[in-house]
Structures
1.
Amino acid sequence: MQLAHSQPHLISRNRDALDIARTIAGDIAAHAGQTDASGEFPSASFALLRSTGLMGLCVPVEYGGFGASFDTLHDVARTLGAACLSTAMVWAMHIQQVVVLADYGSPALRRAVLPEVAAGRMFIASVTTERGKGGHIMTAQAPLIRDREHIVITRDAPVVTGGAQAEGFLITMRASESAVPTDVCLVFAHHHQLSARTESGWSSLGMRGTQSVGMHLSGSVTEDQLLAPPGGFAQLAMSSLIPIGHLAWASCWLGAAEGAYQSMLDIFADPIARRGYDLHSEMLADRIARVRLQIDTAGAFIRDVLREYNELRATRALDDPAFGAPGFSIRVNEVKLLASELLFDAVDKLIQIGGLRYGYLRNDRNALERTFRDLRSAALMYGNDRLLAANGKLALVDRRAFQDGHARP
Amino acid sequence: MNEDRFLTMLRRHLRYLPSGQSLGMSDNLRQLGLDSFATIDLLLDIEDNYGVSLSDRILMEGSFSTPQALWGVVQGLVAPHAER
């Protein structure tokens, strides 16, 4: 993305965004327990994200956003993830939609939507689920119907995260009534263009604040609200939607695990709170070392693929076939797989270290039990089973995987 | 090199091609259901059937866009072998 090193104003904008995130993280963390207990959308935390401009973190500067680098996205996501994972993940999904709009929206759509995002007035929810196909984004059932100059949308979606709060929706649809299910297109709709029926009933083990709702959407939009790149939806997904999604979610999970680790270290740094723990125990040392290893491994891998993605974006156009190379797809999927497995396991181990008092039980010093429940969702959302099956298949044709560094076309 | 045999193999991978409908050489394979995973299965099938090894680069070069494009690739790979 931006070559921040050579441009001081970009460095300062990136640093400002991260400073803001660190400043509001305390307030967001203070609401996290209540959000979890009530299972309500974290409205107060979102009010902060809106008023500080962080909803527009990745909106280009020309539209009034921070125009932040993806490295900054990674750090802000970690910061928010440590504070409240429900808030962070809903925000990360919004940022994912924003990047796709900035990358692939028509000029008219970008002008209409991105300044609103930057001003904190536009939260965009993603509508990809559909009955009968789950969360698989590469297919769609409900077709777009063209009615003279309008495009008509009628769409059921069983799970829309933040759907009841969003001012805009990015919706996957089948391209037309005669199109096959793999002929997917994305369409942006303003809330006011749709009549939306919402069914709530989100009652979950973790990520309780995400308030995912079932929705029935109907309405009509104009041609310039279609995201229809020449390379089709697959190219859009491989160059923008999927890498940004996996990297941003994994960064949130990383932050949550880092926060959990930090909270345990804070207890071990407090001579009173640490009574009852034997800090000289070899078993404790072994356990802490393993947790640290897992968190550092996840962080290093996320940043390695992030570097690869930044490099691709800096040297290739978005329609370049390099984004569809099997080796790159595998590694982007691995970010999600590795982070979801390692970081959940790390927090599980932290609970073993913390024991009942500062691990398993709700207490006023840390929130390991909440983070454990929250991170359990990581393997399920955009499910790991399907990603592993995909990577196994891709690996069969990525035949020079390790011959010239990472498979690069 | 038998074009009919090639098309018979190909259509097994096109889940949206109705069984009674013929497959034209310039049909859009993606529209007929050849998504990225079906493409990989097809690539392995071609290798089995023609005894050739395809480069993984072929996946990114538009070779799987139409039966015509793919047939050209297969002929190019098989012909030198046949002459030996």
Note: DSSP finds eleven helices and eight strands in chain A.
2.
Amino acid sequence: MSVLSIVEQAYRGTVEEQDDTILWLSHMLKNAGADLNILLRSNAVNYAVKGQDASGLTIGGVPLTVPPTIDKDVQALIAAGVTVYAVQEDLEDLGVPQGDLIGGIQTVARSGVAGLFDKHDTVWYW
Amino acid sequence: MTTSQEKTLTVALMDPPYESEASTTALRIIDAALRKGISVNVFAYEGAVNLTMKGQAAHPNPVKGTSAEEQDHPTTARFISGLFGMSGEAAKLDWAVCGLCADERGAGDWIEGPRRGSPGDFYKFTQESVNTLIIGAR
């Protein structure tokens, strides 16, 4: 069974979690043998932007020594065999040029999203 | 307005830990206020009662193959415990946990610092503060 996992809400608890919960879950499922791909849309397309840095946070004298590195987590998913799509128009709406994306991201037009649904047996919308 | 009112801020929280950036933002504001000598009253309502649960534990990350020690996961309870460490004569942190919200969640075992409270505490806080910041759940 092939799965298209849609990630739309970005930076939801990523500092406290040190990662994105759905990217993390997707990687765990891939490691467990799932045939799974990811579609980044809306603000979550920013997860594909390289060079993100969330370091330097300290609260109450407690430092966040291991900050989230979402772009590297997306790269690791691609390296694990997950195809990661990002909606082109959402990138343009956020002013993200193609050159700012990590390698291996597959951009897809909004009009092509339905076609992606057809290519998978099931769609999970988080 | 009294001087103590001018130097006191109230923050109402609703989000549970690990679900949004709202609580991280709130904790940063509280940290900044205390460092500037401004006392902070917090009313932890609904899911926010879980922010200070004593049983929160750091865990390894099997995706990255890192141990709990390597991940050094700063739980919200640890962050807030640190904020209580900043509380003192110059700026005081008062953290009231909604008692009924904690009861319904079984969330009564919290770290040293917060106290059991009620909506009445929140109302009192607002009367004693220069302003109230509501960070509601979305």
Note: The interface with chain B takes residues 11-19, 21, 24, 27-28, 31, 57-66, 73, 76 of chain A (CB under 8 Å).
